[in-house]
Design brief:
Blueprint: H1 2-31, E1 37-44, E2 52-61, E3 64-70, E4 76-82, E5 85-89, E6 100-105, E7 108-113, E8 116-121, H2 122-125
Antiparallel strand pairs: 1-2, 1-8, 2-3, 3-4, 4-5, 6-7, 7-8
Signal peptide: 1-21
Keywords: Signal
Length: 134
């Protein structure tokens, strides 16, 4: 019985490895500036700020995406997605990136990470809709 549980645990951990590797690979591509798509989206850097237009660049790897959002101030934050779900924001001076919530409404991700807010079109995150870098 223990052997069966051990084999099942090992099998599940090996099957989930690509799911872990994809967001890491997408983040690595984004950090190196290797993007599939660029565009604009709405974001707010500080609590209480109105949404403004921000630049965004997305790197896709299989079922994952990493998007680097550049605020009008020049400050950047990377957001990571896998299987169409928001995973986390990177750690910055604004916070560690784990104080977050998100939802997908009518094709737009509405995300809060620390005090920052983002409205990201779903089409930017989906790799099957990736366009060449402009």
């Amino acid at each position: 019985m223990r052997f069966t549980r051990l084999v099942a645990s090992l099998t599940l951990s090996l099957l989930s490895f690509p799911a872990i590797a994809d967001p890491m690979a997408a983040s690595q591509r984004a950090r190196s500036g290797d993007f599939d798509r660029r565009g604009d989206l709405f974001c707010a850097q500080n609590a209480g700020d109105a949404l403004a237009t921000c630049k965004a660049a997305v790197a896709h790897v299989q079922n994952s995406a990493a998007i680097v959002v550049t605020f009008p101030s020049g400050f950047r934050r990377m957001l990571t997605f896998t299987d169409g779900r928001f995973v986390r924001g990177n750690a910055t001076m604004s916070g560690v990136g784990t104080d977050s919530d998100w939802r997908l409404d009518d094709g737009t991700y509405r995300i809060r990470v620390d005090d920052q807010r983002f409205e990201i079109p779903q089409s930017m995150i989906r790799s099957d809709m990736a366009a060449p870098t402009e």
